[in-house]
Amino acid sequence: MLAAGVAAAALVGLAGCGGAPAGPPVLNWYINPDDGGQAEIAAACTAASNGAYRIEVSTLPRQSSEQRQQLIRRLAANDSSIDIMSIDPPYIPEFAEAGFLAPVPQDVAQRTTAGVVNSAKEGASWNGELVTVPFWANTQLLWYRTSQVAATGLDMSKPVTWDQVIAAAQRQNSTIAAQGIRAESLTVWLNALVESGGGEIVTNPSPEDPEGVELGLDSPAATKAAEIMKNVSAVGGPGFSTASEDENSNAFQAGDAMFQVNWPFVWGKVKSAVEDGTVDQATLDDFGWAIYPQVTAGHPAAPPYGGINLGVGAFSPHVDLAYDATECIVSEENQKQYFLTNGNPAAKTSVFTDPEVVEEFPMAPVIAQSLQQAKPRPQTAYYSEVSESIQRNYHPTAGIDPPGVGPATAALIKAVLAKEELL
To answer: Smallest Cα–Cα separation from 223: which of 405, 380, 70?
Structure first.
């Protein structure tokens, strides 16, 4: 009896010291805000693991820059509670360069990049190596009101140039909705124009020190990009300098703009408005879409690339399980469901030909083509400094000097990286 009592006491003591009931390891997935899709995937993958792990989600701030800041601060303190992260692609080089990402196993890299669009693979990599897992990819299309464009004679079944789009808007006394606000979207626009013209904003993405960063903002491609931004602002309407994606979507939906460059969320937005009776079906029927405009006729555009990739924390105690979970998260089935329920396009090309997806998003083939052509924003560990400098000098676009704004911005970036100037 004494031995049994001692054993029972020992068990009670162990339970008291343990503090938590036994169970599968918990994987903490830090997600960007969405419509609940990532939480649903977490629950589905938890069930599919058959008790191997349990995924819990924690929602980061809405702005991507604030998401970066929160994660960077915690990882700089070797936070072991960060197992999986939803990361905005421009910040991936910074995370990789700092050693905050657990290496992607070669077999995982092969499986998770099979059939993935070019831009998502490029955006998930750093120095030629996959450092994150592609989850969902995004791109901008050229949206147009078919009734207004019909009167211009512009053939939207073929690639069009920015100059053609500007001229068409002028002929119709209409506007082009583009992101003229001083925000990250301005960098997105400039980068797409420079890349479409055959240039690059950052020409050597991984120097040994920040002062070694080389820039291509004095190139002919950068000058042409600035010219287009200035010309678009002249037909962008009175609120162009404060226009974000949402304002542009509203202006286009209202018929105030005959063109807009924007992400696919605009389609789900107008469909929802039709369903709740606030917008007529005729408005939805008047929506047209095409590949992003070319800078030079005959040279394919390099549309914006966005989305989210999954990083595994370097200090996680469950790296192997975390990579197992990421493979589940980015499965074709989950990418399809995420597209259908949250409106975020897949990274896998096969999803864009799925009949359910095409029925819900008839522009899916154009999105897929755009993602194959798209280019990431400047890949550099110093992206924040580059982007904030661009936003400072290129805004408002109506007042920029096309030949001079690029070199001036390059000088600012150099000064900021050399700690000679503050943003």
So the answer is: 405
Which range marks the domain in which residue 254 is found?
Answer: 141-302+382-417
Q: Are residues 296 and 318 in the same domain?
A: no
- Do 112 and 133 meet the contact criterion of CB atoms below 8 Å apart? yes
CA distances from 117 to 155, 198, 352 (A): 27, 20, 11
Q: What is the spatial distance between Cα 134 and Cα 123, in angstroms, rounded to a whole number? A: 8
More confident residue, 364 or 16: 364
Which H or E run includes 305? Answer: strand 305-312
Instruction: State pLDDT tens for residues 255-278.
Output: 999 999 999 999 999 999 999 999
Q: Count the alpha carbons within 13 Å of 49 in the hemisphere toward its beta carbon.
A: 24
Q: In terms of domains, do 227 and 206 share one?
A: yes
Read off the pLDDT of each residue in 158-176 and give the average, rounded to a whole number. 97
- What does the DSSP 8-state code read for residue 394? S
**Do 126 and 181 fall into the same domain?**
no
Q: 141-145 and 176-177: which strand pairing?
A: unpaired
Average pLDDT, the chain: 94
Q: Is the dihedral of CA 379, 384, 386, 391 positive or negative?
A: positive
User: What is the spatial distance between Cα 112 and Cα 407, in angstroms, rounded to a whole number?
Assistant: 40
CATH of the domain at 319: 3.40.190.10
Encoded tokens for 255: 């018929």
Query: How many whole angstroms separate alpha carbon 294 and alpha carbon 303?
Result: 9
CB-count exposure of residue 173 (10 Å: 0-12, 13-18, 19+): exposed
3-state secondary structure of 78: coil
pLDDT (0 to 100) of residue 17: 44
pTM here is 0.93
* DSSP per position, 220-262: HHHHHHHHHHHHHHHTS-TTGGG--HHHHHHHHHTTS-SEEEE
- Looking at the structure, tell me whether residues 248 and 314 fall in a common domain: no
What's the rounded Cα separation, in Å, for the pair 301 and 372? 11
Residue with tokens 């597209």: 339
Give per-residue pLDDT as tens, 39-83: 999 999 999 999 999 999 999 999 999 999 999 999 999 999 999
Give the pLDDT confidence score for residue 249 in this predicted structure: 97
Residue 10, in any domain of the structure: no
* Beta partners for residue 30, in sequence order: 58, 85
Q: Are residues 246 and 155 in the same domain?
A: yes
